[in-house]
Give the backbone structure.
Amino acid sequence: MREVVIAYDLGTGGIKSSVVSADGEILCSAFVSYQTYYSAGGWQEQAPEEWWDALIESTHRLLNKKEVPPESIRAVAISGHSLGVVPIGRDGTLLRKKTPIWSDMRAADEAEEFFRQVDYQEWYEATGNGFPSACYPLFKIVWYKRHEPEVYEKIHKVIGTKDYCNFRLTGRLCTDYSYASGSGAFSLSTWQYREDYMKMAGISPTVFPEIIPSDGIVGEITREASEATGLPVGVKMVCGGVDNSCMALGAKGTAEGRMYTSLGSSAWIALVSTHPVLDFTYKPYVFAHVIRGMYASATCIFSAGLSQQWVRNTFCADLVEQEKQGKANAYEVINRLVESSVPGANGILFNPSMAGGSMMEPTPRMAGAFFGLKLEHTRADVLRAVQEGIAMNLRIALDVLCKYRKGTERMLVVGGGAKSPVWMQIFANVYHLPIETTSVNQEAASLGAAALALNGIGLWKGYEAIDRIHRLEQTFLPQEEVCRIYQLAQKRFGQLVNYIAEMNN
């Protein structure tokens, strides 16, 4: 009987559950979505019980497949979206039906007060926490204390997204180093919590859970969890990791200096190394890697695929309607239109900061913009400008990281955007690097979680197998004449970014 593990990719939009063989092949997958709730003051919340329900449903879908006999499952592991703030009482009860997700900004005042006592640069360089500070759990817990004291007084532990599911599967409250590194109170140098930061914030030093290795065994599937999910009692639960670090592992981030671009709803470039990349000007965000002693440092933009989605819905409603009628996928038609335009989009520039600016941008109050529109421009020019603008924004992110990693020879791209050949060619010319896409594509986080499970139970001895699992599909080489066009466009793009920042500050 073929031994398998189940990898769960607990993302912002839903959970993808995958059965993965011992040789790293993804045999089948199931996806179940859940909701994000938006309310006053920038709140963005999800319901932990909905994560659990989605995990149950997706697991049942997998186990209903003939190729997945339950007795073949050796272990499970979860990659979870970051900066979760799930309050658990001493009796194990969930204290809040909905909890803030990473992008929730309610704790801005609490963060500001903390930095009246603690130097912000010193905190950033200790933690590597380069998202807007209000995103981090340390400050959201202070928000609980101030605004919901009846909840705070009952808190035993505050845990992350995947750690809540681990708790429901095994009954154990713990986390791993990668997830703990996004707490707002974790030292990248000692790989331990900073109790002084917790005391300065006014919260208990015991509020965060114990930390174990990402491929450490949390426990076994309990009888109660087995009855809910269909997973056999006794299957090993491996701790798993934060999504950024699981994806880094699954994207061949197993050795010093490796880089990749993730091109999804948001997008980032990550560098795996034995030292964190800390730059107070651009503030790369750093997570402890799921491989002990390494780090995943990244610079990001918030609206990559989201900008693509916006332009599809806004300018291409006819293509969306045709897709609904069973005709070509709207994005495939968009890619053909992009290809029909020319490099430089006939002079149009697009800034993709439609969800605000990331920490590497001049201000969080950045906005999206088209520049250079003329009456002779076509829809194809506008669509090409969007893809080029996203690539040029990420080129800025690449240049930040390349200050700390010289001689990058090629770039692996993973995520949904990697499916577009015309976009990958744009990236090759904007980055001035060969771009590689592989068979792993959108499965990098799932592969990372599966690798942790396989290593945790001894079916693997390290992570060298990941390189072999990636089968090269396409390489896109820079075209020198086009690269020169984009070098000029990149300068104009930088001027546009600075102008937008000035207008919105």
Observations:
- The mean pLDDT is 95.
